[in-house]
Design brief:
Helix content: 40-55%
Order of helices and strands: HHHHEEEE
Shape: elongated
Radius of gyration: 42 Å
Strand content: 15-25%
Length: 147
Amino acid sequence: MKKTPFTISALTILSTATLLLPISVFAGDLTYRPINPSFGGDPFNSSHLLQMADIQNKYKDDGSDLNSLFGEDSAADQFVSSIRSTMISGASSQLSDAIFEDGAPPSGTFRLDGATVTYNTVGNRVYVKVSDGITTNSFDIPKPNTN
């Protein structure tokens, strides 16, 4: 089959015209609409989302952890805590008196219920180290004037 020059030129003109014509495309705006009401979604979805989350939750909470965190101590527990605080306060007061009294040795060690308190006086400062065998806290304080 022999091609005529008219056929080739018509095909060329038709394909060129197709490429040069503007092509219209229609599309809408892509918008995000949140579903969760916590992030601006429909407030009527909250009960449905909560119900779906409860259904999917494999771990059931019996509330025992909250009771231990926020539950009140019994009267006996409060009494023991008060006695313990009073005893520690008294020991702290005796320790302070022993370190800062006139004629006190410049260094020393005290033991109280598994804790070790070591002090060393250098010039006008007292360096104190408290250790319970696991943690150690150190601090220094100025020696009060006894004028």
